[in-house]
Structures are given as structure tokens and as C-alpha cells.
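Example 67, ligand FE2/S2 (inorganic) cluster.
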Amino acid sequence: MADVTIRALKNGPYEVTGGAKVTDQKRGEFKGQGDPIYLCRCGQSANRPFCDGTHTKIGFKAEETAS
Ligand code: FES
């Protein structure tokens, strides 16, 4: 299995690379997944768990760094 990496983008979603699959609580796989995958972390996407770009419209701010 490839190395999966999750990257917190500045003021945006989580970018997931490496072939990870996203499933629901019953392990059903969401359709239309590519690589990378962008997961919403602003909580406002109409296509959760995926990002739909709404974070830019609402001015979502998140600039965490690994220190
Ligand atoms: S992070 Fe993009 S819509 Fe939430």
C-alpha cells in the first residue's frame, strides 16, 4: 500500500494523497474519489465529506503548522 499523506491546506481542506479511500460509517465507499482527495474541514461543504470550495466563500481561516 502506498504511503498516505494528509496535508492541511492553508485556509482550506485536507488534501489526502496516496490512494486512501473514504468510507461512511458502514464502510460504504464514497464514489468519484480521485487522488488527491480533498476533505472538508470548514464544515460547510454541500458535498461532505469532500470539499466543494465553500471555504473560500465563507472566509474559512486555518493556518496550523507542525512546529
Ligand atoms: S474546506 Fe472546502 S468546503 Fe469546507
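Summary: Residues 45 and 52 are 6 Å apart (CA to CA).
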